[in-house]
Design a protein that fits this description.
- The structure is a single chain.
- A hairpin with a 2-residue loop joins strand 7 and strand 8.
- It is globular and about 75 Å long.
- The protein is α/β, with parallel strands linked by helices.
- The protein has nine helices and 14 strands.
- The chain starts with 14 loop residues before the first helix and ends in an 8-residue tail after the last helix.
- It binds adenosine-5'-triphosphate.
- Adenosine-5'-triphosphate (ATP) binds next to helix 3.
- The site of adenosine-5'-triphosphate has 14 residues, from helix 3.
Length: about 375
């Protein structure tokens, strides 16, 4: 599209080589006073590198202290000063490829309070709005432009929360005591659908912004002082796109999927007990299954365990086959988050590492050129 022409699904000549199937971006949240802790070191001339440094105390006095540094490399690293616009600029072409018929999935992964919701939803102003409203804005703008070339698009939005492996419709407007239950179903044509879920046809940016506000409200009513539920649930916004160009006899169908994952902190730190233990078990299991699914897809394994968690089952259509995936790993800069930050960066590197290995194998197989992932 950037080159000015829409292609039928999968036939675009420029996008597949420009975007690998999986990209990982790291975003560092600013400290409350706006700065950055010393233990997170960003390179001034390489926006793909980040190091986490720690001084390990010596048992024989301060003179023997050692600096331990953990180096990471991602497709892009955003420092604490990166604006919402700068972040979106880096993913806008990927988002746009959903109009080309590619399924696109974008996750925010990280510990509670690391900036996942800020990245995905953001705040209400033009400057602070996040990936979801910006993506939708771009979709409608581009679809409008393409109307001049004979394209007609329909958009259908849904917004679902997964809490303790149970689905909840975030666009529900009925009585609280009449909330229906939901099941994920795979249809004969391989589409994944959710029973009793609100699928809302949308044709303007404002309509979607209203749905996002409704989802926020639905989420906060389920939350009590004792239960900061949004941190412990995944929220999945999906925009199903159907496009057609009667003059050229082309149709395409795809889904843009934007996911704010539950906080990734480990079980030990939160000293979980009772309900909290159940929540943490569900989160850890679905996040690790997400890693397993992404890895299995990158390795082109025959069996992909989508059904091991509600999250991957729901996202099945957006993760496999003709799809492009981007993961944000959001990290907190506070020194006491060091352990969780290291953990998040290791998870993200592991996920992206398989891509690097695969690219290297392809590179070797093709004699060092022409590998198109
Ligand atoms: N890049 C940023 N610039 C300015 N403020 C930010 C940024 N990232 C996050 N914040 C602020 O930090 C706080 C925590 O961020 P946020 O709620 O997005 O975290 P989270 O990872 O979604 O947490 P949870 O898992 O609880 O949902 C919020 O007040 C948010 O506005």
């Amino acid at each position: 599209l950037a080159e000015g022409g829409l292609q039928s699904p999968g036939s675009c000549c420029c996008l597949p080589c420009r975007f690998p199937r999986l990209q990982v971006f790291c975003r560092v949240r600013p400290l409350v006073d706006g700065g950055l802790s010393e233990h997170i070191q960003l390179s001034t001339n390489d926006n793909k590198m980040l190091a986490l440094a720690k001084t390990e105390e010596s048992h024989v006095g301060r003179a023997g202290d050692t600096q331990k540094s953990y180096n990471f490399s991602f497709d892009r690293v955003f420092g604490p000063k990166a604006s919402q616009q700068e972040v979106f600029d880096e993913i806008s072409l990927l988002v746009q490829s959903a109009l080309d018929g590619y399924n696109v999935c974008c996750f925010a992964y990280g510990q509670t309070g690391s900036g996942k919701t800020f990245t995905m939803e953001g705040d209400d102003t033009e400057e602070t709005m996040g990936v979801i409203p910006r993506a939708v804005q771009q979709m409608f703008k581009t679809a409008k432009r393409l109307e001049e070339q004979g394209w007609q698009f329909t958009f259908t939005a849904s917004f679902v929360e997964i809490y303790n492996e149970t689905l909840r419709d975030l666009l529900y407007t009925g009585k609280a005591n009449k909330r229906p239950e939901h099941e994920i179903r795979k249809l004969a044509n391989n589409d994944v659908t959710v029973t009793n879920l609100t699928y809302q046809k949308v044709c303007s940016e404002d309509q979607v912004l209203n749905l996002i506000a409704l989802a926020k409200q639905n989420r906060s009513t389920a939350q009590t002082n004792l239960n900061d539920r949004s941190s412990r649930s995944h929220s999945v916004f999906q925009l199903a796109i159907e496009g057609g160009n009667a003059g050229r006899d082309i149709n395409c169908k795809s889904t843009l999927c934007l996911v704010d994952l539950a906080g990734s902190e480990r079980m030990l730190k939160s000293q979980s007990q009772g309900e909290r233990f159940k929540e943490m078990t569900a989160i850890n299991s679905s996040l690790s299954n997400l890693g397993i699914v992404i890895t299995a897809l990158a390795n082109k394994e025959n069996y992909i365990p989508y059904r091991n968690s509600k999250l991957t089952y729901l996202l099945q259509g957006c993760l496999g086959g003709n799809s492009k995936t981007l993961m944000f790993v959001n990290i907190s800069p506070e020194p006491d988050s060091f352990g969780e930050t290291l953990n998040s960066l290791r998870f993200a590197s592991k996920v992206s590492g398989f891509l690097v290995i695969k690219l290297f194998v392809l590179y070797c197989k093709t004699g060092g050129g022409g590998a198109d992932f």
